[in-house]
Design a protein that fits this description.
There is one protein chain. With 220 residues, the chain is of the alpha+beta class. The protein folds into two domains: 4-83, 434 Repressor (Amino-terminal Domain) (Orthogonal Bundle); 108-215, Umud Fragment, subunit A. Helices cover 30% and strands 20% of the residues. It has helices spanning 4-32, 36-42, 48-55, 65-75, 117-127, and strands at residues 108-110, 133-138, 153-157, 167-172, 175-182, 185-187, 199-200, 206-215. Helix 2 (36-42) packs antiparallel against helix 3 (48-55). The longest helix is centred in the N-terminal third of the chain and has 29 residues, at 4-32. The chain is elongated, with a radius of gyration of 20 Å.
């Protein structure tokens, strides 16, 4: 049974950990330009993981070290030791790519570079030290006629201002898509007839960034 002083010490440690994690999350938001919901989506976590932690009145819980590490690995912005409940591993390495398990019509998913190999080196070089860019793995043929194929990794500049003719990353009611931007519409350029229907950029669609380069794996 814990004594009252021990309980106070535990509560103080938890409060200090939570404050450090809040400061870390604020820094990630500021440097990436993303909301907690968007950050959670990027690490393939439920949005409530971060929104509850940051915004729910009266909530005094903390984030797990696993979530903290996922954020660091995803954005290359690692948390300070005081934001983790345990000591950090000696080396944090990107996870292996796993088969995409999203909904059948999902067009893209956040890309996690595998350990070693040419793709890991190329994607790492493209995003290294730049927290405002993010790699996405393309699953659709919506831009096939523009030269983008399923399996390509698209490097997205989250801070770039979209211009007419750019390939953009957009958040729509059905998920993340990549389209040609012809203000005020998004249009596809491929065999997918559904993607060729112009979509008006309005309150239900938001532009997240501009594709600056694509990387294609060796096709054997």
């Amino acid at each position: 049974m814990q004594t009252q002083p021990e309980q106070h010490r535990r509560a103080a440690r938890k409060e200090k950990l939570r404050a450090a994690q809040l400061a870390y999350l604020d820094e990630v938001e500021e440097r990436t330009g993303l909301t907690p919901t968007e950050i959670a989506r990027a690490i393939e976590s439920d949005a409530s993981t971060l929104t509850r932690f940051k915004n729910k009145a009266g909530y005094n819980g903390t984030l797990s070290d696993a979530v903290i590490d996922k954020i660091g690995l995803r954005f290359g912005l690692y948390a300070p030791p005081e934001a983790r409940s345990k000591a950090a591993p000696a080396v944090l390495e990107p996870r292996h790519v796993v088969p995409f398990q999203g909904v059948p019509n999902a067009e893209a998913s956040p890309f996690q570079a595998p350990k070693g190999g040419v793709m890991a080196a190329l994607v790492t070089a493209a995003v290294a030290g730049r927290v405002h860019v993010a790699p996405w793995l393309l699953h659709s043929r919506a831009l096939e006629e523009e030269g983008y194929l399923p399996g390509d990794v698209l490097i997205v500049d989250l801070h770039a201002e979209p211009r007419a003719g750019d390939i953009v990353c957009a958040q729509t009611p059905v998920g993340t898509v990549f389209r040609l931007y012809h203000p005020p519409f998004l249009v596809g350029a491929g065999r997918d007839e559904g993607a060729r229907i112009p979509q008006l950029v309005d309150g239900s669609i938001s532009l997240k960034g501009v594709v600056e380069v694509s990387i294609r794996p060796l096709r054997r």
